[in-house]
Amino acid sequence: MLVSCYTSLYNTRNKAKGEVMPRAKKMTKTEAKKAFKPIIEAKIAELEEKIKAIAGETFSEEGNGSAFGTHMADVSGDLYEQEFSAGILSKEYELLIACKQAIERIEHGIYGICQGCGNPIPKARLKVIPTALLCIKCEEEQNG
Fold first, then answer.
1. Radius of gyration from C-alpha coordinates of the chain
2. CA dist 56 → 6, 86, 89, 137 (Å)
3. pTM value?
4. Cα–Cα distance measured from residue 24 to residue 32, given in angstroms and rounded to the nearest whole number
5. What is the DSSP code string of the chain?
6. CA of 104: how far to CAs of 33, 98, 99, 100, 109, in Å?
7. Less Cβ around it within 10 Å: N or C end of the chain?
């Protein structure tokens, strides 16, 4: 939303001069590998460690023994924590998949191409969201 506001402001201020916001240039496979692959691979390693830690804590055998002699409120609290952790685990796993798909797009030479309109996604957007599939315009159209 912020970038779209910036684009509108840029276009409004420079319309009289006949200028519009410059369009993003298509990135080469080599550029994508050099600039974004290391960032995404580091994120993959971080997510894998995080997922392993959360899964270990959430689904460990500790505390999953018999509820006999345990107060129901304690059991309820444990179940809430497990559900909460499972939700976080699910989100982290989705991000891991998105990162791995981004690496595949880099390898196939289609990284940074909007899947909505086919135009290049600006490098500034990819630096913030390396797994972006859509340019800002298509993202706004899709999400309202």
1. 22
2. 44, 11, 11, 40
3. 0.70
4. 14
5. -HHHHHHHHHHHHHTTTT--PPPPPPPPHHHHHHHTHHHHHHHHHHHHHHHHHHHHHHS-STT-S--TTS-HHHHHHHHHHHHHHHHHHHHHHHHHHHHHHHHHHHHTT-TTB-TTT-PBPPHHHHHH-TT--S-HHHHHHHH-
6. 11, 10, 9, 6, 9
7. C
Instruction: Give the residue extent of every domain in the chain.
Output: 28-111
Chain centroid to CA 56: 23
